[in-house]
Amino acid sequence: MPVEKPKPEPAKLLAHWMDWEKGTVPPGQTLADLKRGGLRDLLEALAEADEPAPESGGSAKG
Known about the structure:
The protein is mainly alpha-helical. It is built from three helices and no strands. Helix 1 runs antiparallel to helix 2 (27-36).
């Protein structure tokens, strides 16, 4: 049975980022935390939501 990945938690991802900005965590650890936290999944979902909807065939211009 495959293991389900948990949904990304934006607040946790932001906390990891802020720790890096404060200098309390090295960049490599930050990247690992962001990866484990699902940053890619979150960014992919945002990118999909930002894509324009396909046009519906005809042109409304006249």
